[in-house]
Amino acid sequence: KNYKKMAELLQNGTAAGSKDVTLDMMDYKYIDNCNDVKELERIFRALKSGKDGYFPHLISHCENKVREINPRSKELRKLNPITRTKDLPEEEAKLITNGISDWRSEISSCETTTNPADEELPPIRQATTFKGNKSTSDPPKKNNRIRSYDYKSWDKFDADNECAKVDKKIEGTPSIPIASVSTFKMPDKINGSWLSDSEKLIRAGIEKDKGNEAFKAADYDEALIYYSRSISLSRTAASINNRALSYIRLQRWKEAESDCNDVLQLEPENLKAKLRRATARKELLKYVEAKTDLQFVLEMEPHNSRALKILEEVEQKLGKKSSGDAVEASKKSGRKMIITEVSSDEENTEGPVTNHCDSGNKTVKKEEEIPEEKSSEIFTTERVDDQNSKMEDSVKETISHTENLEIEDAIVNTPPAEMPEAVLRIKNLAKESFLSGQYSEAANQYSKAIKMIIKIAEENTNADHSHNVAMLYNNKAACCLKMGDDRECIANCNEVLVLKGMDTKALIRRACAFEHLEKYKQAYLDFRSAQSIDWRIKHAQDGANRVAKHLRDIHGPNWKTMLTENKVLTETSQSNVSSPAKFETKPSSEADIEKKKEEIRRSLFEKLKTEGNSEVKRGNYEKAVVCYTKCMDMCPNEVASYTNRALCYLKLNKSVSASSDCTEALKRDPKNIKALFRRAQANKNLKNYEKACQDLNQVLKLEPENKSANTELVAVKKLKRNFNDEDFLVKPASSVKSDVSTAKVETRKRKIIIEDVESDEETTGFISDSQISSVTDDSRSSQTSGVSSKCLDTVPTPYEFGNAWNAVHPKNAVSEYKRILDRAPVDIIPALVTNKTTDHMIVTFSKIARYHLIAGEKEEVDRAYGILLALSKAQRFNMAAMFLSEKDKKCVLSAMDDLESAEDIGSYVKSDIENLRVTYML
Amino acid sequence: YDCKWIPRSARFVTLGSHPRGTGSINVFEINHRELQVVKEFECPTSLKCGTFAASSLQSRNLATGDFKGKLSVWDLDTMKTTYSTDAHSEIINSIDGVGGLGIGEGAPEIVTGSRDGSVKVWDVRQKDTPVACMEPEEGEDKRDCWSVANEDRCVCAGYDNGDVKMFDLRTMALKWETNVKNGVCCVEFDRKDIAMNKLVVSSLEGKFKVFDVRTLNPKSGFTSLTEKAHKSTVWLARHLPQNRDVFMTTGGAGSLSLWKYDLQYLQNSTISTQPVCGFDWSPDKLGLCVTVAFDQALRVLIVTK
């Protein structure tokens, strides 16, 4: 029987039952040679079924083959178990959980509780009934097909007639069989007068999303309607900007331009808007304006390939209008090289985006853009406040002008006195061709001039021509840079640096060349050394920042450490180079450069920090966060930026991020009070009361006088208790209560925060706070009393007691102490005091006892005796009593005397007092 | 049976049935990595389905359909019904709405589909009588209506015999009908407030169809694509509210599949051994979703990247 089955298997197929997969197909060779996807899939399925045995290697081999041929094959779909948080890498898990927690706190804070406004609703539909909803499950099947054996029917079949019928059918079918259903025209405005502001924002967001979707589907008309609807609800730069892009796609240039203008009014530095306006203006034949826009964009992002492309076109058009063609040609060749290089760089980053644009316009077709979803955010990060940006604008413009004229300046400024006649002539020629844009020609002429001057120098060794040579090299480098010949440029700059030592222009040019070659490290170092020579050079600063960004992208946040090794090397080489040069104008030692760099970094850091602080003052916490993040990049070891950012996060209700920032700060400075305090606040918001308590205690350990921490601690404890109650009872009422108390804490917190920002110095925050609070002594003491009275109904824990006791200020406010002590029954006092007994405490206790005695009632007198007795049983009491000063002893003694005189009221006897005196060592 | 996020909050509500046949409404809240029960409520009849789609952002009232054919609108703060009517004579299988939550314009309307074969449209301002009713003619077989979807005054209903019918409420006419050969478990439009775009119809035996409903060919109707998603019934298809091109299908064997239009398969995951009968994307947090399955477990998932 087995034999039979085996034979059957070999002949017909496998046990899996599928006819066409035979055993010999389940073979490495066969699978390798098979290129039929269907068959491979069948084999794969049969292998997976495991009915013919389980061969893991063969299965994976087959799987790989299927994937190779058809990566989207259904057979490759595997059922994965769901990923759980613990399966994720820690970083990612943290990111996700933090994201959710932040979202949660954000959303719960902005839940709208406003009363429903009177909506304008359309009338109720008139009741109608639609009958005859019959089943369509069995559509009448037309059975016109004549069966092959039905000869009678075939006899009747008239082929010609049928052919004619088919022809007629084809003619008869309308060429537009698809009738558009959507006759309904959407209004492009929404009447949102009855909506609240938050609701308007939500609806505007929904409309914008719809617009983005329609845009992605290349339905620009529809996208336009949705964007307009969004704008009619709330004018955000993002939706106007997106609408501008839709207009561009629809080739409605005028509207596009006006929309871009609107965006730029809202956000003057919006690069996308500028770029879009440039595109629109180019089509509107406003070349000059387009050019200024493009120059602005390139100033910010010199590698923007689209801007370069459009600029090229614009310049072409401009050139055709004005100047001759010969100049044009060389100029173009000079440009082209740069552009091709850049665009190839950019392609990788942009990634392939499918283009649905069928409009005939070529330039539009080339543009690959997705409307930005969060452009406003992106740009606010870059934006400083409006005034600043305007100033920067003007500065940048002037810089860009000076940039262009830089060469000219160099030529004019340097005295050509020593320069031989012939060389000077060539040089002037070169200068002219440079200014007219014929860079390659200029470069040739410069090299000719260099050759000549070297020859002269060799012949006539008396005159020192090195300065002139350096200048010529420098100019040649500029030409090479313009032409895009970066290597040549670097070589020239090196020559200059050898001849002249540190020359900022040469350094900057070399840096630019390095940057083009994507040697960001070298570029960065050059920019920085240029900066360290003359920190005012804005171009060097911008360049350094730009390159730093690239470096960060490539190497991650630790890029600076990677750099330092190289830095020292190059610097030494630089100083080596500069030292033998005789005509060294500025002797710059390594240490000097280092120092200057440090200074610059410091000053930048300070600038960013103050900027951040002012943003906080203005309430722009998101912008402040960005500033502080930059601060961290500048000086990663500066704690202040972390704590300040934590503050902003607190303000933004992103407690999770805030707490992680504080943890970072504490890593750097474990005793940073602000960080501890803020983490406590964050934890409080997150309802992590246990952790909040820990942090606050830490604060109090470091600064026992810290009032705000004390009050915060009491509040947290209160919340904690409430929270625990809540846990058991699930009462909505109690949550309301805790909300109230958090609100209260919130107000107090704000006070501290203002203090922080005003006192830029890190440490002063709390001290100034406590100073102020000590000025308003009365109000504050009432505050603490309020807090302590809050807890009156409950017996304190030793921990709370200690904190409350320490919090009392001034130290002779006996009534405050009494209030705290009153909460505790006599018998637990030793436990409450624990080992914290001090001489001050003994004195205070005796004073409290005297207060009790004044009342003259039995309970009071007993209590007075009780607390003194109880205190004597506390740990470390003897030690503390030993250190009582004469004055203190007197104070205690008088209390004892008073007790003795009140003996007849109380329930104690004289000998008790005597014993007490002994224990108090009096 | 069903779960829905409460809009503009980190809470969601689950609907179901107690063993003794009473209904349950539970409200949960996400708290860090835990779920907290905010509210538990028991009502007389088991609840099958619910929707927020016809309530305003301020009130956020939940409309539910129960096993006895009653349609109720709940105020979740007080757990009182603000509207209730005996909508159908048998279980309400499916419910949907339009006009609320800032989605779509015009009057907020609720549509219900029931085992009694009728599909009814309700306006909460009008008690007891539906504003529109689609029911089979007398003498015809009554088909079990398993699913409804509502878009821009168009109602789409799927029946147990595989019929899918689209009614235009403006003209009160049957606009389009087709048969997908298997019982229709779920119909959903990709967005409720744009000119009709795409319609997903999921069915028994693991297949779902996507109809391009933008252009109606007078002869062949809407064009469609078919895809086999699961080895078992496709219980639900739900579009991501933030991006209509992405949607999730849930399977009878506890599997979830993520798709993108042009039916590109993105991801697959098994969460349970039982059918996943409820699924809802959070309208506020991209990628966050909640599911309920017949294993009586509820799961909060997040889809990233």
Automatic annotation (TrEMBL), chain A:
<dbReference type="Pfam" id="PF13877">
    <property type="entry name" value="RPAP3_C"/>
</dbReference>
<keyword id="KW-0802">TPR repeat</keyword>
<feature type="repeat" description="TPR">
    <location>
        <begin position="605"/>
        <end position="638"/>
    </location>
</feature>
<feature type="region of interest" description="Disordered">
    <location>
        <begin position="571"/>
        <end position="592"/>
    </location>
</feature>
<dbReference type="GO" id="GO:0005739">
    <property type="term" value="C:mitochondrion"/>
</dbReference>
<feature type="domain" description="RNA-polymerase II-associated protein 3-like C-terminal">
    <location>
        <begin position="797"/>
        <end position="889"/>
    </location>
</feature>
<dbReference type="GO" id="GO:0006626">
    <property type="term" value="P:protein targeting to mitochondrion"/>
</dbReference>
<keyword id="KW-0677">Repeat</keyword>
<feature type="compositionally biased region" description="Polar residues">
    <location>
        <begin position="126"/>
        <end position="138"/>
    </location>
</feature>
<feature type="region of interest" description="Disordered">
    <location>
        <begin position="343"/>
        <end position="377"/>
    </location>
</feature>
<feature type="compositionally biased region" description="Polar residues">
    <location>
        <begin position="768"/>
        <end position="788"/>
    </location>
</feature>
<dbReference type="Pfam" id="PF07719">
    <property type="entry name" value="TPR_2"/>
</dbReference>
<feature type="compositionally biased region" description="Basic and acidic residues">
    <location>
        <begin position="364"/>
        <end position="377"/>
    </location>
</feature>
<dbReference type="GO" id="GO:0005829">
    <property type="term" value="C:cytosol"/>
</dbReference>
<feature type="region of interest" description="Disordered">
    <location>
        <begin position="768"/>
        <end position="789"/>
    </location>
</feature>
<feature type="region of interest" description="Disordered">
    <location>
        <begin position="109"/>
        <end position="146"/>
    </location>
</feature>
<keyword id="KW-0963">Cytoplasm</keyword>
<feature type="repeat" description="TPR">
    <location>
        <begin position="673"/>
        <end position="706"/>
    </location>
</feature>
<dbReference type="InterPro" id="IPR011990">
    <property type="entry name" value="TPR-like_helical_dom_sf"/>
</dbReference>
<dbReference type="InterPro" id="IPR013105">
    <property type="entry name" value="TPR_2"/>
</dbReference>
<dbReference type="InterPro" id="IPR051982">
    <property type="entry name" value="CiliaryAsmbly_MitoImport"/>
</dbReference>
<feature type="compositionally biased region" description="Basic and acidic residues">
    <location>
        <begin position="583"/>
        <end position="592"/>
    </location>
</feature>
Automatic annotation (TrEMBL), chain B:
<feature type="repeat" description="WD">
    <location>
        <begin position="110"/>
        <end position="132"/>
    </location>
</feature>
<dbReference type="InterPro" id="IPR036322">
    <property type="entry name" value="WD40_repeat_dom_sf"/>
</dbReference>
<dbReference type="GO" id="GO:0000922">
    <property type="term" value="C:spindle pole"/>
</dbReference>
<protein>
    <recommendedName>
        <fullName>Rae1 protein homolog</fullName>
    </recommendedName>
</protein>
<dbReference type="InterPro" id="IPR001680">
    <property type="entry name" value="WD40_rpt"/>
</dbReference>
<dbReference type="InterPro" id="IPR015943">
    <property type="entry name" value="WD40/YVTN_repeat-like_dom_sf"/>
</dbReference>
<comment type="similarity">
    <text>Belongs to the WD repeat rae1 family.</text>
</comment>
<keyword id="KW-0677">Repeat</keyword>
<dbReference type="InterPro" id="IPR019775">
    <property type="entry name" value="WD40_repeat_CS"/>
</dbReference>
<dbReference type="Pfam" id="PF00400">
    <property type="entry name" value="WD40"/>
</dbReference>
<keyword id="KW-0853">WD repeat</keyword>
